[in-house]
């Protein structure tokens, strides 16, 4: 019996410890548990950010104070106690709840943080205020995130789009040297002639001779208002990947109330990102006017508008431009977000108006983006085009 009691006591103590960690200490939590060692350190790191009740043994104390050393120490603590995914969430909450953005302008602070897409967005929003002493450290942080994203996304994107380009370039009357015999035989198996033990190819399948020539043109038109920060980061990475494919001519345009063409910087997505200016208003109509003026082969062009559609420009003109591009043969895709965050806030009236023009607007995760682009290049229905 004593052995069973010891087990029950141990289980009860563990439950009290966990409740104490959740409730944050003080008389109100009712557990009476006192934390020590690693648990006390974890509790202090959580309390510094999220606060808690005061007045009791082991209670949480709220606040990081205003000093960079305190924040840098706290950043080190949370990386010790929590996994990377939790650290990123806590950093995000610290920036939002405690107004720590300005501290990120100090190099020693940047060296202490766990880099992720949201941190990059914050740094880009501070770009114009960033002193030269911080800029190189900030670029190193951004480059680390960009390289991680490229490693995750580039290979699949190239493979998916190469397949789509090959299928879209397939011709039914190829020259002899351009015949794809494997596909031709599969397509003509029904024409097998037993007495001759051969297939009679009624339909030849092949590819155009200019396999290395530009087959498609893609225009990425990216809203750089503050709410689109994660989308700007992902779109810049994808823009660099697309630009690395010789058969796709890629243009990248960012906009707020002004329009900036960053195409000549696409070989380095970090340069692209530091060429953006997050925040400000939105003039989608002006941005689309610029993109429209650069289209020379409408039937072979895909325009991807990445925006929450909160238009500050002329709404009717914006819709007319989209309609005109579609009539000319342009494939037009509207992404309300390009991020892992799920459903964004967006202008539902504008989304419905675009859908009525045959350009449905929906949120897209980075992992789905290659499939969306492949479908657009092949002029087939987009995968899962459900409104966010």
The proportion of residues in beta strands is 5-15%
Class inferred from helices and paired strands:
alpha/beta
- From the spread of the alpha carbons, the general shape counts as globular
- Sequence of strands across the biggest β-sheet: 7-6-5-8-9-10
Summarize this entry quickly.
The protein has 388 residues and is an alpha/beta fold. The protein contains 14 helices and ten strands.
Question: What can you tell me about this protein's structure?
Answer:
- With 388 residues, the protein is α/β, with parallel strands linked by helices.
- Helix content is 48%, strand content 12%.
- The protein contains 14 helices and ten strands.
- Helix 12 (315-327) links the parallel strand 8 (301-306) and strand 9.
- The protein starts with a helix and ends in a 10-residue tail after the last helix.
List keywords for this structure.
alpha/beta; two-stranded antiparallel sheet; 388 residues; single chain; six-stranded mixed beta sheet; 48% helix
Describe how the helices and strands are arranged.
Blueprint (H helix, E strand, L loop, with lengths): L1 H22 L13 H14 L17 H14 L2 H15 L8 H6 L4 H9 L6 H37 L1 E2 L9 H7 L4 E2 L4 E2 L6 E2 L8 E8 L5 H15 L4 E8 L3 E3 L7 H6 L9 H10 L7 E6 L8 H13 L3 E8 L9 H9 L4 E4 L4 H10 L10
Parallel strand pairs: 5-6, 5-8, 8-9, 9-10
Antiparallel strand pairs: 1-4, 2-3, 6-7
Helix pairs in contact: 2-3, 6-7, 6-9, 7-9, 7-14, 11-12
């Amino acid at each position: 019996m004593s052995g069973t009691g010891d087990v029950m006591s141990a289980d009860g103590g563990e439950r009290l410890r966990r409740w104490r960690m959740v409730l944050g200490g003080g008389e109100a939590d009712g557990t009476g548990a006192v934390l020590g060692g690693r648990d006390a350190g974890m509790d202090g790191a959580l309390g510094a950010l999220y606060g808690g009740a005061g007045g009791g043994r082991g209670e949480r104390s709220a606040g990081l104070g205003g000093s960079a050393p305190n924040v840098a120490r706290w950043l080190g603590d949370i990386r010790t106690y929590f996994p990377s995914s939790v650290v990123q969430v806590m950093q995000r909450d610290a920036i939002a709840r405690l107004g720590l953005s300005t501290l990120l302008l100090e190099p020693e602070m940047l060296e202490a943080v766990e880099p992720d897409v949201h941190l990059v967005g914050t740094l880009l929003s501070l770009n114009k205020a960033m002193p030269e002493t911080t800029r190189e450290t900030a670029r190193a942080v951004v480059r680390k995130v960009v390289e991680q994203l490229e490693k995750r996304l580039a290979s699949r994107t190239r493979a998916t789009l190469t397949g789509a380009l090959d299928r879209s370039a397939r011709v039914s009357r190829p020259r002899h040297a351009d015949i794809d015999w494997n596909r031709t035989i599969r397509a003509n198996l029904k024409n097998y002639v037993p007495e001759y033990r051969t297939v009679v190819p009624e339909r030849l399948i092949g590819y155009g001779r200019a396999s290395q020539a530009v087959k498609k043109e893609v225009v990425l038109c990216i809203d750089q208002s503050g709410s689109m920060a994660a989308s700007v980061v992902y779109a810049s990475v994808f823009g660099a990947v697309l630009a690395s494919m010789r058969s796709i001519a890629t243009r990248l345009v960012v906009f707020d109330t002004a329009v900036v063409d960053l195409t000549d910087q696409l070989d380095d997505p970090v340069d692209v990102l530091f060429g953006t200016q997050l925040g400000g208003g939105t003039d989608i109509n002006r941005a689309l006017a610029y993109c429209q003026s650069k289209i020379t082969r409408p039937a072979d062009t895909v325009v991807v508008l990445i925006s929450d559609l909160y238009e500050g420009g002329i709404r009717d003109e914006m819709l007319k431009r989209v309609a005109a591009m579609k009539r000319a043969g342009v494939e037009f895709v509207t992404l309300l977000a390009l991020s892992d965050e799920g459903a964004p806030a967006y202008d539902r009236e504008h989304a419905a108006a675009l859908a009525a023009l045959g350009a449905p607007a929906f949120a897209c995760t980075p992992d789905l983006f290659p499939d969306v682009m492949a479908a657009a290049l092949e002029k087939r229905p987009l995968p899962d085009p459900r409104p966010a």
